[in-house]
Write a structure and sequence with these properties.
InterPro entries: Aldolase_TIM, OxRdtase_FMN_N, Oye-like. It holds the Pfam family Oxidored_FMN. It comes from Nocardiopsis suaedae. There is one protein chain. By secondary structure, this protein is α/β, with parallel strands linked by helices. It has a single domain, classed as Aldolase class I (TIM Barrel), CATH 3.20.20. It has twelve helices and 14 strands. Helix 1 runs parallel beside helix 3, helix 7 runs parallel beside helix 8 and helix 8 packs parallel to helix 9. The longest helix is centred in the middle third of the chain and has 20 residues. The protein is globular, with a radius of gyration of 19 Å. The chain starts with 16 loop residues before the first strand and ends in a 29-residue tail after the last helix.
Length: 365
C-alpha cells in the first residue's frame, strides 16, 4: 500500500488479515494495558499466562508494557525482559497463547522520567533534567511527585535506544511473535519527541529531526535485531499524557513516519489522541499496516464496534481495543454477535491477584 487508502466497505472487523509474516483470523487487536501482576523480580507467572490465553481469539494480542532494563521500569510489579529468568518466565505466556490459537507481540516500554527511586533504586533518566509537571508516579508506598530525572548523555541516549533491541531479542527467544515499541503516552520515546521534556541541544534535540532521532534509532536497531516484519510502534500524537507536550504534531509525526517508512515495519499503532483530520493525514503518510485505537485513553468510555467500523472505513487496517478486553475475554465473539459487553471493576485494574483479572467469564447464552 503506497497510495492514500480509500474506504473499503467490504472490510469488516472479522475478516482475516496479513500482518508481517502472520495471518490474523480477524482485525481485532488487544491493546497493551498495564495490569501490574508481576512479582518483585519482574517475572511473568501462571495467572498472566491464563489472562492472555483467555483472550487469544483476538487477531493479535499486544502485551502489557515490559521494561527493557531496570532503569526503564515505570511502575512497581511490572514485568521485565532483561534477565534470563524473566525471559524464561514469558515462555509459559507465549505457549499458552499459541496453544489457544493466538498470536502475541511484546510491548517494550521504557518509562524514562516516569519512574521513581523507590521503585527501581535508581534515579530515573530522561532526555533532559525536567520533571513531569503536576504528575504523581506510582511507587511501592503509593503515589509520589514525579522526580527530576537525570539527563542522559549523548552516548547514554544511544545506549538506551539499543535497549529496545536487546529486549526484543529476548522476546523472540521467549516465543513472542514480535514486539511493539511503546512510543506513546509520555514514556521515554515520547519524552524525546516532546519539546517541553526534551531541551537538548545535541543530535537528540532541538529540531524535529533531532527530536525524532531517538525513536528512529530505537526502531531501526530493533528491526535489525529481530526483523522489521516483527516490529511495530505505538504513538499518541498530541496526547500530552505525563506532561509530554508535542508541538507541531502534523510536522513532527509526519517526519517520524517518513523516517520509519523505508524500514518495512509490521505496523504503526495510533491512538486517537489528535483530531480526526490530523489522524487521517498520518494514515495517508504511512504506507504500511495501520492499527487504530479509537478510544482516547483519557476518556472514561472505551471504544466499541461503531467507532471501530468508522476507522476501518477511513482506512485503518486493524482496530485495537483496550479496556473492553478486561471484562470481556471473548470480546471478538461479543462484537461479532452484538452481545452486551461487561464493564470492568476499575478497583481491580492494578490491585494484583486473580480477582478482576482472570475471573471474568465468557458470555453465558
Amino acid at each position: 500500500m503506497t497510495e492514500t487508502r480509500t474506504s473499503d466497505r467490504t472490510a469488516t472487523l472479522f475478516d482475516a488479515s496479513a500482518l508481517g509474516g502472520l495471518r490474523l483470523p480477524n482485525r481485532v487487536v488487544m491493546a497493551p494495558m498495564t495490569r501490574v501482576r508481576s512479582d518483585g523480580r519482574g517475572l511473568a507467572d501462571a495467572s498472566m499466562a491464563a489472562y492472555y490465553a483467555q483472550r487469544a481469539t483476538a487477531g493479535l494480542i499486544v502485551s502489557e508494557g515490559i521494561q527493557p532494563n531496570r532503569v526503564g521500569q515505570s511502575n512497581p510489579r511490572t514485568p521485565g525482559l532483561h534477565t534470563d529468568e524473566q525471559t524464561e518466565s514469558w515462555r509459559q505466556v507465549t505457549s499458552a497463547v499459541h496453544a489457544n490459537g493466538g498470536r502475541i507481540f511484546a510491548q517494550i516500554m521504557h518509562g524514562g522520567r516516569i519512574s521513581h527511586p523507590d521503585t527501581t533504586g535508581m534515579q530515573p533518566v530522561g532526555p533532559s533534567a525536567v520533571a513531569a509537571r503536576g504528575a504523581e508516579v506510582f511507587t511501592p508506598s503509593g503515589p509520589q511527585p514525579a522526580p527530576v530525572p537525570r539527563a542522559l548523555s549523548t552516548e547514554e541516549a544511544a545506549s538506551e535506544a539499543l535497549s529496545y533491541a536487546a529486549a526484543a531479542e529476548r522476546a523472540v527467544e521467549a516465543g513472542f511473535d514480535g514486539v511493539e515499541l511503546h512510543g506513546a503516552n509520555g514514556y521515554l520515546i515520547g519524552q524525546f519527541l516532546a519539546s517541553n521534556a526534551n531541551l537538548r541541544t545535541d543530535v537528540y534535540g532541538g529540531s524535529v529531526e533531532g527530536r525524532i532521532r531517538f525513536a528512529v534509532e530505537a526502531v531501526t536497531a530493533t528491526a535489525e535485531a529481530v526483523g522489521a516484519e516483527r516490529v511495530g510502534i505505538r504513538l499518541s500524537p498530541g496526547a500530552g499524557i505525563w506532561d509530554a507536550i508535542d508541538e507541531d504534531v502534523p510536522e513532527l509525526y509526519g517526519a517520524l513516519l517518513a523516517a520509519l517508512a523505508p524500514l518495512g515495519l509490521a505496523y504503526v499503532h495510533l491512538e486517537a489522541t489528535a483530531d480526526e483530520p490530523t489522524l487521517l493525514a498520518l494514515r495517508r503518510a504511512w504506507p504500511g499496516t495501520l492499527i487504530m485505537n479509537p478510544s482516547d485513553p483519557q476518556s472514561p468510555v472505551p471504544a466499541g464496534r461503531k467507532s471501530a467500523e468508522h476507522w476501518l472505513d477511513l482506512g485503518a487496517d486493524l482496530i485495537s481495543f483496550g479496556r473492553a478486553f478486561i471484562a470481556n475475554p471473548d470480546l471478538v465473539e461479543r462484537l461479532r454477535a452484538d452481545l452486551p459487553l461487561e464493564e470492568a471493576d476499575r478497583s481491580f485494574y492494578y490491585q494484583g491477584g486473580d480477582t478482576g483479572y482472570i475471573t471474568y467469564p465468557p458470555f453465558q447464552y
